[in-house]
Each structure stands twice: as structure tokens, then as C-alpha cells.
Amino acid sequence: MSWFSQKKKREPSEMIRIWNTKSASNGLMSKQAFLEYRAKLISTPHTEEQGELIHCLIKIEIGAGDKRSRELLEQEAGDLIFFSLNPGPHRRITHSRIDEVDEKRLHQLGPATDFNRVGSTEIYFYSS
To answer: Which residues in the chain belong to E strands, given as ranges?
Structure first.
């Protein structure tokens, strides 16, 4: 008699186990990182002085225990801006600068001219 035939036949509910993860409201606080982004969007055949200024504030959710470095947060914010703007093949982003700010800066800037949400990240666009 083989090992397989000796095993007790299992019911389907015993064979598949589903593990429920705890929800985000497990008592651990989450916080946000605020990053201010400035850059210039230019068309490829034009000079850099003729570009469109980009100014936005990015609010990224950071879960409790999240140990992302500042550099990684800045890279993620830059990628999200690039994704949101989708400059296309004939435009490029130049003179980009990103700074960590606090939530007060969001209120200082006033109402955004445009808003975009990518996942749990909020991007507030301002006219410069």
C-alpha cells in the first residue's frame, strides 16, 4: 500500500486554506509623507526656456512600520508624477526638484487647480 493510499481522503474545504490578513484598521496608525515637486515640461524641439512649469504636492500614505528611505519616497513620487503627466515621446521633464514638506504646506498653497489619485497617493497640481 502506497503512502498516498494510506492518507485519509480530505474534504475540499480542508485542502484549501484561506488566510485573512488584518485590515488596515488594526490599531496601528498610518501617517503621510508630503513632497513638493517642481519641474519644467518642454517639447523636444523647443529650448528649455519655453517649457511649461509643473508644481505639485504629493501626499503619500506610509503604513506603520514602513521603513522606506527618503530617497525611495522621492523616487516613488517622481515616478507617480511622470505616470500622471504622461509626457509622451515628444516632451520631456527637466529641472525637476523635490523637497520634503509638512502638511502645513498643503494648506499654504491653497486650492489645487487639478487633482489626481494614484492608488492611495494624492497629487495636487498648482498653476505656477
So the answer is: 31-43, 52-62, 91-101, 114-118, 121-126
Q: Return the closest-CA partner of residue 125 out of 105, 108, 110, 115.
A: 115
Contact of 48 with 40, CB cutoff 8 Å: yes
Work out how many domains the chain is built from and give that number: 1
> Does residue 119 belong to any structural domain of this protein?
yes
Given a cut of 80, whether residue 128 has pLDDT beyond it is: no
Contact 96, 37 (CB under 8 A): yes
Whether residue 3 has pLDDT greater than 70: no
Residue 63, domain extent: 28-126
Residue 68, C-beta contacts closer than 8 angstroms, at least 6 positions apart = 62, 76
100, 37 contact by CB (below 8 A): no
- CA angle at residue 38 from 30 to 75, to 5 degrees? 50
| Structural domain includes residue 114 | yes
